[in-house]
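Section 3.1 - Work completed
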Amino acid sequence: MGLGQRRPARKSAGVSGLQTAKRGKKAARGGGDQGAILTIDGLAHDGRGVGRLGDGKTVFVDGALPGERVEIAVHRTRQRFDEAHVREVVEASPERVTPPCAHYGTCGGCDLQHLSLGGQRRHKQAVLRELLARQGIAPDGEPELLAEAGEGYRRRARLGVKVDADGRVHLGFRARHSHRLVDLDDCPILVPALAALLAPLHRHLAELEAPRQVGHLELSSSDAGMTLVIRQLREHDGDTRRWREFALARGLHLARWVGRESPAFEWLTPAPDLHARLAVDERSLRLGFAPGDFLQANEAVNQRMVTEALAWLSPLAPGERVLDLFAGVGNFSLPLAALGAEVTAVEGSPAMVERLADNARRNALELTARQADLSRAEALGTLLDVPGLRQVLLDPPRDGAEAVCRALAERPVPRVLYVSCDPATLARDAAHLVRAGYVIQRWAVADMFAHTAHLESMLLLEHPDAGQRGEGASSDG
């Protein structure tokens, strides 16, 4: 039997791995109120219901909604709070709905499906408001909502692959609170073309000679078609041929990362021109990307965010200088340049800087792409000390942009647009700006991932005293 090949099936010992895990969890609980009836007072930021036991101890309850009375089962006890799940809904909230996915409750991907879509979005707006309030920030009014369809929206996904002790191949997302995979034959949040691949992929994996060599699969859909990238631990000639036949039969672009320590990337079908499109006024921009590059999963909501950002930063005077930090493949930089702004787009990776420059060329746009470490004060000072710089846009990863915001507090510009994928780090960073005199003019929540607790957000901050700052600065950046 070759390395990574399927082992012959063996008889079950009578207890499944899941049952064993459950027994282990029960042994680890160390107490907790089983079968208690709880009234749910609110939702935590992660979407779990919050209530209190008779002794006042806080309980976070998976699958519970505000106003409900539920019978709970505690699955983990801690010193200051317990964690539980709903055993039975005694009195349901009017916001409770039937989850659209058959895998709800086992798959860990979409944990808010029991809450109406409107309720999910109001919760996300409340989360942003509360996190800002914790930093002493209270913007006027309610945050705007940028939202589209709740299903069929996700254009990329990473699926785990595992072969169990009995030789069965599993394909799917991880189970809730577990490393176990939940087999998926459908997923209502994937764009339909990707969802239709799940069952054929599962059957194909079961037919491979060495399925254990497959770590995970990455699926994506773009204007160039559908792309499948295999994470493969070791090459297997027979399975490589099978993968090519599978891709050819379904019109897929096929690539793989192969190797354990330092995996190498290669296309198994002709390399495509991978690109996504963005509409800017009457123009359609092409954003080229490569497997592994960041691309927003929800195309429609991303378009809404870009359109909103352009509106918030307008009017843009011809040649107006705009600094786009954490620019990625040019999601905001290219649209700004298309409107006539003089854009400097900054990324940390030299390869991503080259992708930015190439995207500007392919769209016939003037744009300066620069590499810089945006955690270093020296680099930030050079970027900000530019004559005529009036607008800064930043779209950082989940850990935020605290160093950037400290620099912007010391060197204020008239307008800052902060786009965030983590409201907690956004609130932390915005506090530096507000304390330095910036005022929030507009704010919004973007429902990028419906049926999950994840939210994107946008803040537009203006500094009333920045005026024409930087006109006399000596550096030209």
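Second construct:
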Amino acid sequence: MSKWQYTKKSEAYSIEKIQTYVVQVWQGIKQWSSRSIKSWSNGHSLQGFVCLFLVGISLSLAIAAYAASSSNTLKATDSGNHPSLVAQQKNIELNLVSFSVTKAAHDKIIPKFVEKWKKEHNQNITFKQSYGASSPQALAVIQGGIEADVVHLSLAPDIQKIETAGLIQPGWEKEFSNNSIVSKSVAAIVTRKGNPKGIKTWADLAKNGVSVITPNPITSGSARWNFLALWNAATKASGDESKAIEFVTNVYKNVPILPESAREATDAFFKGGKGDALISYENEIQLKALNGDKPLYVVPDVNFSIDNPIAIVDKNVDKHSTREVAKAFIQYLYTPEAQQIFAQTGYRPIDPGVAQAKEFVDKYPQIKTLATTNDYGGWAVIQKKFFSDNAIFAKILRSVNN
């Protein structure tokens, strides 16, 4: 809305009118004061002038207070929390920012939500969507290059960066079900046709002569999940952190390139013909199969739960007056209807009923040993230990490059 409206006693005032009225009053006070000073100088009583002056000041303060009160009321109304603001709009635009591999799911879910909202509210919703590597997407939101209303990113630290920047209020993890995790997957190893290098386990990726494609953990959430899957497999096998460092270092010695995102890594493997093996999301490989390809892959029995969070960008929804729609969209993503689409496009469903459907039980076999971020102290501990400056991954990378 270009102009905020506030109604009191059946009389509408705009901010512009209030400001104009205050200016007029001040001009009147100045003229009044000028005449009073002249009268005083002509012998009229000082007492009369002082009284007039005080009355003028009292009136101006009262009007200023009224204007401030009205302005605060208008701002509160514009906060995005007032249902009437959304109800007054016929066309609503919602900005969704997500990581690259969710596009296929969102492309099928969004039209269903748009149709549902139109039927229930008689309003047209247009989605403006942006997909890319998770960390650069978060940075674009922070810098204002994309005014996201909703962010669905690869991992919690990317949303926490947006929170630290002041765009998302603390406590976003508890705002929605399942700690605001709306999609999940596990890691998979993809091989070439016929698997000529005989790659079946995590350990095979560290062998001499094996070329492995995985994204860069500095820019890609997928790559950090891949790193954690490798680390978890090594620690479960040996229980020795020094041996885990040695194993993961040997795997990265076999990595010829570090693409920025999971999608770029997938393209490098399938389209560019690079590597003997690709570490990827299971959902990305499932999607390739749905599109007619038949990639050869294995989901290791020792694996890591890849949990993708979602959040409302509070500052932007309040600016755009889209909080109600943004919240409804996220809640819709948790419904069986939306979770079924996630499952059909490669994600392991978080809805128990959908997960127990025979088609998905067969499609997503149970993992024998599945670790989570909580097993490693949560993301704050993980970030500091593995991915901060001079942490384990940085040391491994320097070792590989030397």
